[in-house]
């Protein structure tokens, strides 16, 4: 039976991959200067460069999850066409988006009993979610049920490592205290974070200096990467392409056979982590 893969814009799945693999990416909303915008990689209401320029200038931003109505509308169009739906969504520990998808699936199951709507909490974020979708979409020949099982069994092998350049954005989001941010800024301390097995974004270590924090992402990769399973690495950045290229250079030197795709981190994550964020995603033996 034919089916369609859906994800949300928090996955930051590059537009070219979404088109090549026929993945539908649902938009995520954000508000700046009292105006609502919608973000989808490659086709946002506001260019991502403008978004980060506004953030650097101090413009506040708030984000919004995908609501149940949007999921129903998107899924139903596919169900009416005789296809099933597999939705791989943003970590439930970071957003209520996937819960909206579960609600939509429940409502549509009663209306279309012969069709399937499978919703998966990826426990992933940003291009980590995107990398999971990318690997899954290349396995569609498995069929929807077998592929859904593969995603559930492998999602915790998609590893996320982040660092940020300015802690003011984590402070604004309530992830660290003002005192912690102030002390870290004075001492040039940079956090190294990851997404854990439950889907939470947590700090793992602190290093002194930007270069060391970038190197720490690669060092973490060396410890757990499954080099045989990782044919493609995603590297994300918030308006910091040169720093992403530095990390990519470290990877190329050690793992020349891997394809490295560098792209922007979108508004949903970038609004909270801020300009200067660098994130590395790969397949590992564990998170």
What does this structure look like?
This protein has helices spanning 15-21, 48-56, 68-79, 97-111, 126-137, 144-154, 168-172, 178-187, 210-224, 241-254, 267-273, and strands at residues 3-8, 23-26, 28-32, 35-39, 61-64, 84-89, 117-121, 158-163, 189-195, 201-208, 232-237, 259-264, 278-283. Helix 3 (68-79) crosses helix 4 (97-111) and helix 9 packs parallel to helix 10. It is an alpha/beta fold. The relative contact order is 0.16.
How are the elements arranged and paired?
Blueprint: E1 3-8, H1 15-21, E2 23-26, E3 28-32, E4 35-39, H2 48-56, E5 61-64, H3 68-79, E6 84-89, H4 97-111, E7 117-121, H5 126-137, H6 144-154, E8 158-163, H7 168-172, H8 178-187, E9 189-195, E10 201-208, H9 210-224, E11 232-237, H10 241-254, E12 259-264, H11 267-273, E13 278-283
Features:
287 residues; alpha/beta; six-stranded mixed β-sheet; four-stranded parallel β-sheet; 11 helices; 13 strands; globular
Shape: globular
Summed up, the helix count is 11
**Total strand segments:** 13
The biggest beta sheet reads: 6 strands, mixed
Class based on secondary structure composition and strand pairing: alpha/beta
In short:
Helices cover 41% and strands 26% of the residues. A six-stranded mixed sheet has the order 10-9-8-13-11-12, with helices on both faces. A four-stranded parallel sheet has the order 2-1-6-7, with helices on both faces. A three-stranded antiparallel sheet has the order 4-3-5, with helices on one face.
